[in-house]
């Protein structure tokens, strides 16, 4: 039927395009590390476990490796574009928390007085978010993969490694999925208060 023919034609065009992309490295990279076209803020809501990350500044990598686990939590997602972005980090049996009011603008947000711009990058992993943290106007790049799962499929990790390679960044550090995440931050618990200093130490310098 004409419909079948049309579908067939469309499929072969897509296949042709896919094939030509895979033969041309720069194009493939452009495609692999493209920012998200559209971000549904409601999809962000809740907690995400950090699965792996790469940092462009090598001295920070050793420090990064010492963390047992890390998570991001987006909350207060309303019709307004200002949402709450919280992070936790488990390091040497302590939990460090930080929280920011951030303003979503399309596929990105800026925080820490404009020193960090975060862009959501495309990933084919269905329950992941991939964030590129551009620190101090591009001086450093932190490229972090978060998921609702603690551990991803090999295929998904391969895509992330390819993305990191496209950015010419050091091979990713994969976090140990058996290590516990920090418990939810509760304002009533003084042990779990925002630790701006620690966040500053590990992320900004
Ligand atoms: C949550 O969002 C609402 C509406 O944008 C705002 O009025 C409120 O202050 C926010 N709450 C927090 C804790 O940021
Ligand atoms: C975020 O905004 C709310 C409402 O304006 C405020 O109560 C809260 O202290 C802010 N949080 C941070 C981390 O700046
Ligand atoms: C950005 O970070 C640098 C270095 O940490 C600091 O000196 C500067 O004041 C920061 N700028 C803002 C706007 O926070
Ligand atoms: C995420 O942050 C919100 C607001 O601070 C909090 O109510 C919620 O419990 C947090 N969720 C997790 C899993 O930490």
Notable features of this structure?
205 residues; disordered C terminus; 9 strands; Lipocalin; alpha+beta; single chain; binds 2-acetamido-2-deoxy-beta-D-glucopyranose
Q: Overview of this structure, please?
A:
The model is unreliable at 14-21 and 188-205 (pLDDT under 50). The chain has 2 domains: 1-32; 41-203, Calycin beta-barrel core domain (Lipocalin), CATH 2.40.128.20. Strand 4 and strand 5 form a beta hairpin. The chain is built from 6 helices and 9 strands. The protein is globular. The protein is 30% helix and 34% strand. The chain has 205 residues and is of the alpha+beta class. The termini are far apart. The site of one 2-acetamido-2-deoxy-beta-D-glucopyranose has 5 residues, from loops.
CATH architecture of the largest domain: Beta Barrel
Tally of domains? 2
The distinct ligands, each listed once, are: 2-acetamido-2-deoxy-beta-D-glucopyranose
Q: How would you name the CATH homologous superfamily of the largest domain? A: Calycin beta-barrel core domain
Main β-sheet: number of strands, strand sense, barrel status? Answer: 8 strands, antiparallel, barrel
Overall mean pLDDT stands at 84
- State which percent range the strand residues make up: 25-35%
Rg for CA atoms = 19 Å
Briefly summarize what is shown:
This protein is an alpha+beta fold and 205 residues long.
């Amino acid at each position: 039927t004409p419909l079948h023919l049309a579908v067939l034609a469309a499929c072969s065009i897509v296949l042709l395009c896919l094939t030509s992309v895979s033969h041309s490295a720069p194009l493939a990279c452009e495609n692999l590390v493209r920012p998200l076209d559209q971000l549904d803020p409601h999809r962000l809501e809740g907690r995400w476990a950090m699965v792996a990350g790469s940092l462009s500044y090598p001295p920070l990598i050793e420090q990064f490796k010492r963390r047992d686990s890390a998570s991001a939590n987006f909350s207060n997602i309303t019709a307004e574009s200002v949402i709450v972005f919280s992070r936790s980090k488990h390091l040497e049996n302590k939990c460090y928390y930080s929280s920011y009011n951030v303003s979503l603008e399309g596929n990105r947000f800026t925080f820490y007085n404009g020193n960090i711009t975060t862009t959501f990058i495309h990933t084919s992993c269905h329950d992941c978010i991939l964030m590129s943290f551009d620190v101090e106007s591009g001086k450093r790049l932190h490229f972090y993969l978060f998921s609702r799962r603690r551990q991803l499929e090999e295929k998904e990790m391969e895509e992330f490694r390819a993305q990191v390679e496209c950015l010419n960044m050091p091979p990713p550090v994969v976090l140990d999925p058996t290590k516990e995440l920090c418990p939810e931050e509760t304002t009533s618990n003084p042990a779990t208060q925002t630790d701006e200093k620690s966040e500053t130490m590990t992320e900004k310098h």
